[in-house]
Amino acid sequence: MLITVKTLTYYLSEHPSIINFQWSYNQSWGSTWSFLFTSVTLYLTLSIFLHLLLALLLRRGRPVSLGLIPAIHSLSMTVISATIFAGILLSAAAEIRETRWFWRRNKTTPLRWLLCFPMGTRPSGRVFFWSYVFYLSRFVHMWRTFFTILRRRKLVFFQLFYNSVLTFMSFLWLEFSQSFQVLAILFTTLVYAVVYGYRFWTGIGLPGACFPLVINCQMVLLGCNLVCHVGVLRFHFMKGGGCNGIGAWLFNSVLNAAILLPFLKFYVKMVLEKRKNNIGFIENQNQDAKFTKKIKEK
């Protein structure tokens, strides 16, 4: 067991490819702005084209059977997310351990480093390697949109917007060495591991939860991100020279707000409808009980 843990630690945080990683146009695939815009545009175009093509070829509302393909995709995303989570957790711990002596001179704490990279931080090393893997995983995540279009015959514009925004955000994390990305990736991959694991569970025919697990997990993720954004602002305006990549962080904050508002509206609407249905169910039960009581009295 000890050998296994040491081996995993080596391949997740101590491998030379991880330690010597550098985000650059020459060494990192997909690291150019042209690639980012082209890939996101292609994703949006293919999604709309597939939706229109199915509307022309198939009867309205008729789904396309995909078998176990969505379940296999969910299992793959579960493994990828869990690997990224473990990798960046071990890498962050290693970075904290190796640079603590320097932080004492600058009065920096691990929490401050997690939320606020020092000015002049370059996108290289362990945590940025896993940030790069997370960026690449966004393109694997996009395949779920095509499954939704094929199975449900729906083009969900919020899903298109959400995936496009998160791809842009993960690119900005690397391009500008943006603060807060370590915690953001930890929270996101942990939630993804749970959500996609649950989707795999239900995708192979096993019973689902008695409450909307996916929606609640996403709500927890957005809440954690909101709290951390407040922490970034606090550290940026404290003494210490500010946080690296604050301009990109501000742009990301706007994108996060654009995601949070419609999702919060949907979540509140869902909760109110569920409460309304529960009240209606209770009222029907009460009426049935009164009716039964009258029958017995007669």
Automatic annotation (TrEMBL):
First-listed, main subcellular location of the protein, grouped into a coarse class: membrane
Record-level GO BP terms: fatty acid elongation, monounsaturated fatty acid; fatty acid elongation, polyunsaturated fatty acid; fatty acid elongation, saturated fatty acid; sphingolipid biosynthetic process; very long-chain fatty acid biosynthetic process
Superkingdom of this protein's organism: Eukaryota
Entry-linked InterPro entries: ELO_fam
GO cellular component, one term: endoplasmic reticulum membrane
Alphabetic keyword roster: Fatty acid biosynthesis, Fatty acid metabolism, Lipid biosynthesis, Lipid metabolism, Membrane, Transferase, Transmembrane, Transmembrane helix
TM annotation in the entry: 33-58, 70-94, 155-174, 180-201, 213-237, 249-268
UniProt GO molecular function: fatty acid elongase activity
UniProt-listed Pfam families: ELO
Annotated localization: Membrane
Bilayer topology term: Multi-pass membrane protein
Record's protein name: Elongation of fatty acids protein 3-like
Organism expressing this protein natively: Acer negundo (Box elder)
